[in-house]
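Quick one, T. Sequence first:
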Amino acid sequence: MSGQLVNAGITMEFSDYGTTVNVTSPPAGEVGTFQSFPQAAASLTGSSTN
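Structure tokens:
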């Protein structure tokens, strides 16, 4: 099985600079590395990264 090439674009708009926020880090079990992302994404869609 071969993969498909996908191109995407994103436009982001930032506002409210200086606004106080309250942020907490997620538990270690809920985060991963960038390198593990393709495999994790494939497991959600039933695809293969090979």
